[in-house]
Design goal:
Elements (H helix, E strand, L loop, with lengths): L1 H16 L2 H22 L4 H17 L10 H19 L2 H13 L10 H13 L3 H12 L4 H8 L3 H18 L1
Length: about 180
Amino acid sequence: MRKRFEEIKLLALCMASDNREAFSRLVEIHQQGLRRFLLNMCGGDVMLADDLAQDTFVKAWLGIRQFHGLSGFRTWLYRIAINEYVSYRRSRTNTVMNQAADTSEILQPDPYDGISATDARMDASTLLAGLSESERTVALLFYLEDMPIKEIAKVTSMAEGTIKSHLSRARKKMAKIQ
């Protein structure tokens, strides 16, 4: 409750007086989760995830007065992040995407190697790579960001039933890969 009150106070300061310190605090609160989400959406590309996170926060700052509080700030922020990711994907040519796919194939973990933190991250990347973009988005929001289905529906503009279907398919696909 206290965290929610602090967020409301910070948002009010941002909207009323363009308070950059208040917005910086909002960035501190949300950047770790947002960057983690984007990193997984980007298949582990740290630089791309950081660029998209930065673009997300810039757009949030520029559009802070359009935030009406109908959903939580996190929901609004993740919606911007998804839009940034989708815009990035649209702007890429097939050639560049194929090069990225070729690179990810080289980085596949050796199943006979000892388990380490790097291997675990690569295993997670392998699992996520086997999902469609919609399934991956929903699975990351649900499992990694602990968002309830109702909030995911607001972030993704998908119906709750569609989200449940994507989660079910994602679980089945990931179970087959393991």
